[in-house]
Amino acid sequence: MTTSYDPGPKQSGEFRITHLSDPHIGTAQSAFRQRLRSLIGKSHSRNLSNFQAVLRDMANMEIDHVVITGDLTNAAKPEEFKTVKAILADFVQPDRLTVVPGNHDISYRRVKRAYRTKGCPRKLWQFVHHFWEVFPSRYPPEFGLAAKEQFPFVKVLAGGEVVLIGLDTTGNLPTKIGLLNSFGWVGRAQMNELRALLKSPRMRDKIKIVAMHHHPMIVPVATMFDSFKYMFQSKELLDLLYESGVDLILHGHKHHPFCWQSRTFRDHDLTVICAGPPNAYDSAKSALLVYNIYSIEDRRITVHYRSFSPPLRPRTEFARK
What we know:
- Helices cover about 20% and strands about 20% of the residues.
- By secondary structure, it is of the alpha/beta class.
- The chain has a single domain, classed as 4-Layer Sandwich (Purple Acid Phosphatase, chain A, domain 2), CATH 3.60.21.
- A six-stranded mixed beta sheet has the order 1-14-13-2-3-4.
- It is globular.
- About 5% of the residues have low confidence.
């Protein structure tokens, strides 16, 4: 596996996957809340313009497949899902787009008061419903397995060379209030089904990529809120993926892009890549939009860290009469 910053012209036989995460597309709010979010760098309108700018830049990169690892929306509102889907209209096909849910895509807020004593039921069905066109209904027939749940799901890409597995790490924890919304959990049923899937003989010679929202390891960039972003079962999951010969783990949740690659005595190395939000490196001194491109050619993966300057906002002038 190699890395670069410029993917260059697409080669014959090359398959390109784009990975981005956590765009947090929100809806309009009161003027006061919009101003407050703007001051702390979390403007909904800016998130929307950044997301659109990334998709326009991708149009010049000859992308075959787009993977978004969660937090597509900010509050899991129906209008937010509709906005995201409208922006992604050119990619809303199973072989062109893969999405997995993030904690912001699963709504608990509007039901938690009614379920104080029972816990808060999550609305995973809402996420799947809005993107039903891109979810496979079952495993590919050649795997010889029956899918019991929506997750994990499997897609075979690049002419059968690549297997993409989607996981739901938003979990079904008994309580989802405040900062606890950020915890992740795979769940025993999903873990068992994933283990059976990875043991399939059809997986043996494939390039295996897993897409999920939460990070399955201790990340190198720590903040004071990391204690509320932990994913339960992370070690068990990471061990399973490592021992099963998974090549890439793609995730988000942590708003700091990074790449970690195992270096061991074994023949196989596992690479974990986090794609932060498009404006992950935005600061007072500089502004860059970022996303990742993975080029797959002759069973070799090249990671391209794409960055570009966002377009300037048009200036509005008012003439005094």
